[in-house]
Amino acid sequence: MSGPEITEHLSPNCGPRRDGLTPSLIVIHYTAMDSAQAARDRLCDPEAEVSAHYLIANSGETLRLVPEDRRAWHAGAGEWAGQSDINSRSIGIELDNTGTQPFSEPQMQALEALLRQIMDRWSIVPAGVIGHSDMAPGRKSDPGPRFDWARLARQGLAQPAVQTAKDQTPTEDSFRAAACAAGFTAEVPLEDLLTATRLRFAPWRQGALHPADLNLPVLD
């Protein structure tokens, strides 16, 4: 399947990847701005000191802002699978979305096509496709509860949720252990960690810790 048509609009906000690292992760964001043009302008503004490798508009138009071999400034503080400096380990994709609206079909199709290309190019496994909130619990909430992770997982473009329930009463310790095994950092307040895992795998679930919250995948 061919990839999306990509327009190059390079941002000055980037640098070399540190310590010879190459991308092993893809981090998905939403822009939380009013338009793709406003997001593009900010991601290319030297004073903003933020960027991403790609920006996908609601229409599906895809912009390349930073070459994949360069370190974009999209992730910020956080970690995944015990590793920090996510910017040096990842490719960042910004989706034109306020954070409260559905993601459009053209945008999702463009994202899926782009993910296939990037994953093939860098040998990134489905478990390496994560959300900003996954690596920064409590600090970030994007791509948010409206993002269809299950759709990506059905195509092998993200880690699927665990379907088999664990028959045990959850404790804070057992939940933190499960979250850590799934790649999340356990070094955050319980409420933030619970919100992050639910945003990713069960955005409909609310309330206190539930046995189903232990149903998290285990990273290889």
From TrEMBL:
<dbReference type="GO" id="GO:0008745">
    <property type="term" value="F:N-acetylmuramoyl-L-alanine amidase activity"/>
</dbReference>
<dbReference type="GO" id="GO:0071555">
    <property type="term" value="P:cell wall organization"/>
</dbReference>
<dbReference type="InterPro" id="IPR002502">
    <property type="entry name" value="Amidase_domain"/>
</dbReference>
<dbReference type="GO" id="GO:0009253">
    <property type="term" value="P:peptidoglycan catabolic process"/>
</dbReference>
<dbReference type="InterPro" id="IPR036505">
    <property type="entry name" value="Amidase/PGRP_sf"/>
</dbReference>
<dbReference type="GO" id="GO:0009254">
    <property type="term" value="P:peptidoglycan turnover"/>
</dbReference>
<keyword id="KW-0378">Hydrolase</keyword>
<dbReference type="Pfam" id="PF01510">
    <property type="entry name" value="Amidase_2"/>
</dbReference>
<protein>
    <recommendedName>
        <fullName>N-acetylmuramoyl-L-alanine amidase</fullName>
        <ecNumber>3.5.1.28</ecNumber>
    </recommendedName>
</protein>
<feature type="domain" description="N-acetylmuramoyl-L-alanine amidase">
    <location>
        <begin position="11"/>
        <end position="144"/>
    </location>
</feature>
<dbReference type="InterPro" id="IPR051206">
    <property type="entry name" value="NAMLAA_amidase_2"/>
</dbReference>
<keyword id="KW-0961">Cell wall biogenesis/degradation</keyword>
